[in-house]
What does this fold into?
Amino acid sequence: IFQSMFLTASLVFVMGSCVEDLDQAPLSNVGANGYFRNAADFNFAVAGVYSSLRTYPQRQIDYFEVRSDNIYVSHSTPQPHTQINDFSVTLASVPLIASSWNENYAGIARANTVLEKITPAVIADEAVYNQYVGEVKFLRALYYLDLVRTYGAVPLVDETISPDESLTIARSAPAEIYDRIIIPDLQEAIAKLPASFTGANVGRATSWAAKALLARVYLTRSGPDYGIQGPGLNANEYDDALGLLNDIVNNGPFGWVSDYALIFAYNNENNPDIIFDVQLLNGAGSEYPALMYPQAFGQDMTFPYAGGVNTGSSKEVTPDLVSSYDTANLNDARRAAVMVDGWTPPTTGVFRAESFFSKFVNVTVAKTLPDRFNFPINFPIIRYTDVLMMRAEALLKTGGSQAEVDAIVNQVRARAGVPDMSNVTYEQLIEERRREFAGEGQRWHDLVRSGLVKTVMDAWLAVGDENNAMPDALDVNHIIYPVPFAQIDVKKGLYQQNPGYN
It folds into this structure.
């Protein structure tokens, strides 16, 4: 099946080549000249392009949940995510910060190789040819969007390159990355990809996924630029986003899942709310749920392996997020599905008060796994609920129907079992998104795109930093991350460090 092929390709690529610096030959060049002989070879190679998604969930949690007002990290045992939490100016030297650069460029290198080698002469079936090109274009756009939202300006590499050639490629501004790669790739993916897959191919990117991702791109570009080389361009492309979102809502095959918790259930993957996610399998899954729960929780629940977040650097759900659910929303069903306030060890029967995101943690399943690296739960990248709420955002920004905005928000709230709202404001919509997508890596991006990041984070920093390790106010330069030192050192002068970092 596609999932197992994706993970097999992942292991082959990971074992065969470990990229630490951009000045190494692209991963996908290995054996490329003699490998691509038929459609089956290309199918395997496309699965390899998907394989860089395997660590995508970890990055979204550590980079964008920890960075936000959703998580607060204790400090008795410093860890890389502690430095992210604290907005450290020395993050460039933290290996964790290099992982997004390395994994995204590994995926881009594989994509470039497939696009260079694939021809109708090898794949005579036009539909199959278009599908593979569309999938690779979709993924390349996704990887570049992740890079731009993480680092701002990055090198634009749209073909296979040699190590020497890589030393001549400077960083390109986000506007150029959008215009030359992200938007054209997604437009082509929309044209070439099928609307759906069946059977073993469920989980591959569809034309609907490409439309949803392009709508997200337009909303991201429309956000403020903050005077930095970040993801926002003040582009005012809300109408462009709205057209795509209307198409998905009116004509797409997606549906409403009435029970919020079932969207993330281990036995209900690829449900109607999922437009695109990271596909993961039992025995070859992901560590990302173990990056949420405390080490002590795993021990108390008798997980048969070590793992979890060190108690001295726990990723605790902030009281600010808890109060967002609890204030006038005491029966919000999402709260119990997203987090726990603590647990009772079977051995002692004494409650331990420590909050954490439990959204993707299933204790029964966890006890059956070989280790903490193989949680077999898919990670959502784009949900139908996200499309609905992006549509509400675009409506608010374009002066659209307030009644439609209210209807969308109240549909989401009704599933959560909380009262309706009227005359929903933009700020209230972003706060509703916070409750809906908590633990999915969206909060930081929402704050940045909305223009609220400075106001919201300054207010939270003033009251939320129990250890006085964080700045008193957000430096807007820290909306994006530093270029990893490993890249700065590749060739002196090729890249300049992002402002605000040492």
